[in-house]
Write a structure and sequence with these properties.
By secondary structure, the protein is α+β, with helices and mostly antiparallel strands. The protein is built from 10 helices and 8 strands. Strands 5-4-3-8-7-6 form a 6-stranded antiparallel beta sheet, sandwiched between helices. Strands 1-2 form a two-stranded antiparallel ribbon. The protein starts with 14 loop residues before the first helix and ends in a 7-residue tail after the last helix.
Length: 265
């Protein structure tokens, strides 16, 4: 394999830089400032070697030291990098990438939704090999309280953004409880549903929005742990939406990979 001017093999990366970045990545895992000895022990490296890397990162603004304690923490340069990455993160296109593989893995039709002026709106659609017969398509707006997609937004979207829709649907369900038979149409009932959804990590419905169809939905979260989009799988097999099913595991894993890890304080 050819070598670069500095003697490093092309395509293999720069070993010293890889080690330096591993130190920085380890620093990220600490919830607060850390001593040199603690960081070196976690990295399984000599403190003198870790100190050299930290000095370079400090010069670049990626690492800073606290006052008298001299502990290390992420610096303003790391914050700038994080904010720049966040600002350039295209949640919709990033989440849409790989949906065809998700369909193939689960055998279910997948759709991607965002919260628009009219509510949860379908913006991407990927049909399974055996397509599910439904009138839904791009631009379809899904209800908040009795669709899996809506319930995922209910659990993870900013409360202020969905309050109007939630209040309106609650009034409608109180008049016709059969719309959402598994929901107590009160503020307490909604809070309980949100709690259950967050504990499971996904939302689900069985034949409540569209008779004969089942659905599971997971959030694509931003750095504030709020849903920027929701990925939903729909099909006809009720076993697919039960906790622990392969489809549920695939969906939760997919959404986790598409979400942004929030910065540590």
């Amino acid at each position: 394999m050819a070598k670069t001017e500095g003697g490093e093999r092309q395509g293999a990366g720069i070993q010293s830089l890889d080690v330096a970045l591993s130190v920085l990545n380890t620093l990220v895992t600490f919830p607060g400032p850390v001593t040199l000895s603690e960081l070196a022990r976690t990295c399984r490296m000599q403190p003198s070697k870790v100190h050299r890397y930290l000095s370079s990162f400090t010069n670049a603004g990626l690492v800073a030291q606290t006052g008298r304690s001299g502990k290390y923490l992420l610096g303003p340069g790391a914050l700038q990098l994080g904010l720049a990455a966040i600002g350039r993160h295209d949640f919709v296109n990033f989440a849409a990438d790989g949906m065809s593989e998700l369909c193939a893995d689960t055998g279910m039709t997948a759709l991607l939704s965002v919260w628009g002026n009219g509510g949860a709106t379908v913006v991407r659609w990927e049909r399974a090999v055996s397509p599910t017969v439904t009138s839904m398509g791009l631009g379809t707006t899904l209800p908040l309280l009795n669709s899996a997609t809506g319930r995922a937004f209910l659990a993870w979207a900013p409360p202020a953004a969905i309050k109007t829709a939630c209040d309106a649907e609650l009034r409608r369900i109180k008049k016709n409880p059969s719309i959402a038979p598994d929901l107590e149409p009160t503020a307490v009932g909604v809070a309980n549903m949100i709690k259950l959804t967050k504990e499971r990590g996904y939302a689900s419905v069985e034949g409540k929005f569209i008779p004969g169809l089942v659905a599971i939905a997971g959030p694509v979260l931003d750095w504030q742990l709020e849903a920027q989009a929701v990925v939903t799988l729909i099909g006809t097999d009720s076993e697919a939406i039960k906790p622990g099913s392969s489809q549920v595991k695939s969906l939760v894993e997919f959404c986790s990979e598409k979400s942004v890890t929030p910065p540590r304080e």
